[in-house]
Amino acid sequence: MQISKRLTGLTGGGSDGWGLFAKARAMVARGEAVTELTIGEHDIGTDPEILAAMDASARGGHTGYAAVPGTPALRAEIARRVAARTGVPTGPENVLVTPGGQAALFAAHMATCAPGDRALFIDPYYATYPGTLRGAGAEPVAVPARSRDQFQPRPAEIDARAEGARSLLINTPNNPTGVVYSPETLAGIAEVCRARDLWLVSDEVYDTQVWEGRHLSPRSLPGMAERTLVIGSMSKSHAMTGSRIGWIVGPPDAISHLANLATHTTYGVPGFIQDAALHALRQGTRLEEAIAAPFRRRREIALGLLAGQDIVRLIPAGGAMYLMLDIRATGLSGEAFAEALLERHRIAVMPGESFGTCAAGHLRVAMTVEDAAFAEALSTLMEFARECATCDAI
Ligand code: PLP
């Protein structure tokens, strides 16, 4: 029997970019010691307090069908958090609870794009983006963000591709680059969205991981609340990746249509997971800061180690749990460097090429192992880069 083109064409042709990750995992499965700096998964589990809340909720009977748009208490708590942090009036009617940010990204594009509509996104990108847009029936159109611009997208380049587009997807703090979009970049993006009548899908799942300054949600910019769908998640902020819980914040009319979509697709999120998320959010910034602290520390370690050399260039790392390293001075592609680093030193990092075309010659390093092992791996990487740049190490 035939599988629909919608699914067979989901990830486009060729490699899905995760070959190196799979190779490292296979080595680990064979019992080899590999330092894995690949995926965005914390090196801690979900906080025992959150698990206790989950357990109490489930044992208390919240195991049946839960309210599809989200429990009233959780929607209200998310709305309160968003309003307090962004200054934009937000109520439960602005919030849909979803099974993670990924499901929210898909739903947001179902809401904004008709089949065949152009949906803009920025390259380098979180690996699922083009497939998610295709899955929603849209035509993904990449807008380049360049290393020489510190991976800040240029509003004029977005505008140049906006003809016939319905939506623009951005992500700040950014995966894979670790870049936080500047207020000027966001103001320029908002201007293009208003001028071109675009929906802005703003993926803010790393909003609690900002190392300098504050997170700025573009929904708070003039005229943007009515055209922005914010993607949120408990995965990164509360180390709840496996719980699959996130949200969309947007205009009430869009949220009520999205709730209808949820009724016909996911049928919501388990009640005991929602109660655990509610408990976690009620802890406020204390818990969020504790969960972000290891990445903040490791970024400082990296800044110290990378100073005083110019072979490995760090893209200014403003947020998220990743560092983007420009290794073009070695003469190697990101893929060749990452392959060789894994083979010779048992250190796994993601080639920039896994995230589109614009991060070629770069590496994404996830800061997801304990401090000493992280420092050692980064030192080895730098030493290897120096060898590659100065002689024929490969
Ligand atoms: N958006 C970005 C930029 C991500 O990096 C991720 C996960 O790594 C997601 C969305 C999806 O997160 P989740 O579905 O776990 O909430």
From TrEMBL:
GO biological process terms held by the UniProt record: amino acid metabolic process
Aminotransferase class I/classII large domain: residues covered: 34-380
Enzyme Commission number(s) from the entry: 2.6.1.-
Cofactor entry: pyridoxal 5'-phosphate
InterPro entries per UniProt: Aminotransferase_I/II_large (IPR004839), AspAT/PAT-like (IPR050596), NHTrfase_class1_PyrdxlP-BS (IPR004838), PyrdxlP-dep_Trfase (IPR015424), PyrdxlP-dep_Trfase_major (IPR015421)
Catalyzed reactions: L-aspartate + 2-oxoglutarate = oxaloacetate + L-glutamate
Gene3D superfamilies (alphabetical): Type I PLP-dependent aspartate aminotransferase-like (Major domain) (3.40.640.10)
Domain of life where this protein originates: Bacteria
Keyword Transferase included in the entry's annotation: yes
Keywords recorded for this protein, A-Z: Aminotransferase, Pyridoxal phosphate, Pyruvate, Transferase
Key word RNA-binding present: no
GO MF entry, a single one: pyridoxal phosphate binding
Membership in a protein family: Belongs to the class-I pyridoxal-phosphate-dependent aminotransferase family.
Protein name: Aminotransferase
Lineage of the organism: Bacteria, Pseudomonadati, Pseudomonadota, Alphaproteobacteria, Rhodobacterales
Gene assigned in the entry: aruH
